[in-house]
Amino acid sequence: xxxxxxxxxxxxxxxxxxxxxxxxxxxxxxxxxxxxxxxxxxxxxxxxxxxxxxxxxxxxxxxxxxxxxxxxxxxxxxxxxxx
Length: 83
What we know:
Blueprint: E1 10-14, H1 21-31, E2 38-43, H2 48-59, E3 62-69, E4 72-78
Parallel strand pairs: 1-2
Antiparallel strand pairs: 2-4, 3-4
């Protein structure tokens, strides 16, 4: 049995935006979440594949899951206690 990804508390559609806008919008969205809540981010910027994991590591948030849906990259980010 595999664990299902957590349900998103907020969704952010950053498709069509280029670096650094997906991360800037993600940071703003996460600020509005309570610790432990989850953001579902969708983006088409290939740079997000490196940027999102790096951003979560440096900000104390958790990258819960990531996958690709066609040309769209999907990330589930859980807000950390200190973020």
